[in-house]
Amino acid sequence: MHLPPEDRTLSPYTGWTRAHWEAAADGMLAAVRPYAGPHHALIDLPGPRPSWSGRRSDALEGYARTFQLAALRVAGAGGADPHGLMERYAEGLDAGTRTPTTERDLADGDLTSWGVITDRCQAMVEASTVALCLRLTRPWLWDRLDDGVRERAGRWLAGALHHEPHDNNWWLFPLTVGGFLAEAGIETDAARAAVERGLEKIEQWYLGDGWYTDGRPRAFDHYNGWALHLLPVLHAHLAGDAALTAAYGDRLAAHLDGYAATFGADGAPVHQGRSLTYRFGTAAALWAGALTGRTPLTPGTTRRIASGALRYFLDRGALDERGLLTLGWHGPYAPLVQPYSGPASPYWSACGFLGLLLPPDHPVWTATEDPAPAERADRVQELTGPGWLVQSTAADGVVRLHNHGSDDQPRDETLPDDPLYSALAHSTVTGPTTDLPDNHLGLEIDGEISARGRIEPLGAGPGWAASAHRPRIAGHPLPGTRITSLTLAHGADEVRLHVVAGAAPGTPVVHGGWAVPDEAEVVTEVHDTATGPVGRAVSRTGPRSQAHPVHGLTEIQIRHSRDATAFGPRAAAPVLRGTTTAGPCLFAGTFRLDGPGAPEPTAPPRVTIGPRQPTGWSVTVTWPDGTAHRATLAPDTVDVTETPAPPA
What we know:
- The chain is α+β, with helices and mostly antiparallel strands.
- The chain contains 14 helices and 26 strands.
- The protein has an eight-stranded antiparallel sheet with strand order 9-10-13-14-22-19-18-17, with no helix packed on it.
- A hairpin with a 2-residue loop joins strand 7 and strand 8 (about 450).
- Helix 4 packs across helix 6 (about 170-185), helix 6 (about 170-185) packs parallel to helix 8 (about 225-240) and helix 8 (about 225-240) runs antiparallel to helix 9.
- The radius of gyration is 25 Å and the shape is globular.
């Protein structure tokens, strides 16, 4: 991929300008062209395995998702199309909709037909993307098609109006199709009904403060930005509906106020949730705010975060030697890939190029970059909707997300923990391991560590967030057992406190800290300080993790993972251990994650725990700068107040 020289005057943080985004789009589109089949209808990208929808569906993804990148490139250039992108995608639309098929594979000799749209099928997702692209490029593609092609394509797209989506963000796919078809005069009644249904559905999932849950009771992740906000706002904007744009735009602005804080100074989004292989698709909501004028961010901040996200992944091997996006995070990483993802799935990240719709003279492209929130000052921000506490430090630009509300559990059953949702904490520089209790507290019974299961948020406020859960062993809750958890955060320090109630006396308790990765070596150590033993896991070229037992936790180990994480081939984490006693018991430890360049801590937080009272434990945490948190903890009950640091 050939990129222009950096511009450190206009973009002092990333060096990237609109020209870099255009060059990146052109390079990615050129790289997929050799894999297009006859008439460009299917783009069959190489990959380690097909998705569960089959190879034909995967090749339709290749068409639809790269079409989105092409559509944004051409529409953003006012129709200029020196590479003939619209001609190729128009030919593919014609060929793909001639004889839609139910065949899943491409081995039957038919290398052009798209799959028919049925209930809850992947073709419904891709129809949404195709419809959006046709809406964006209508003067340069749709309006130039023969009537027969428009009739066939409209009939294929309309299948999304008459079939059931999954009961989550998928309701926005018929909405997106309906928005285009209503505008094009095709099945207008059904199209408008699909728009109304989609908006009604997401209304029941809106929790306020800019956050939706994604169908399930507490499913929060990046889908809030690139689906639940993006698609309604785009529909309203493209329809020219001022009232709808105001309603959904105001929600987007509220979302961006916290969402912008989840990007690290290196450009990385927090590594949490599903479909992480969409990578820089996380920038879509930022651009949507600028596009609609519904954002709390300055134009320079918007571009700085978005360019940082794109550059983060392109600089770290997201594209392989052929210029193709891989299934993974930096490069290929199979453990984070869901079974619904195929070789072309990462190109959903094309929505991250939404900023190209803004003209070159828009302030988002002409303003000097401003620092991202993570670069300005140490900050701890509570997000009450998802039950998160977002903690960032300016010295190293690391963002940590303390999770007391997102579990992605269905409404009527409890599934095994997914560490990308269930962990106590996530960050921009670490990913979960497959075999360590990193960022997890559990009871150990017969060698198995309990799962967290369904998370019940108990509240969040300045510097704190809390939750409760019923620990589970072998898929079943431990009878009568509850764990109440509280995270306090300030600067780079964390104090984690847990009340375990109902467990048999003598049950081992395990509490892992941050698992830090490294390409070369992880140095680990346990040593005593004036405040007791401290365990450290330090990457040679990356972050460092520290843990210190405070109350109830009496032993510290350093555990090494046998498997790679998304950040490197090896990792290690400090793990604290203790044992339950009779009745409810309290466990507490201090934890810390530092990125490269962070200063050595001057002193640990001072934790004072009073004797257990009928109302629970009284805990005072005094941070190194004199700020204090005072908390009362009991089973299922947490009360916290913060006292600012005294004047210097």
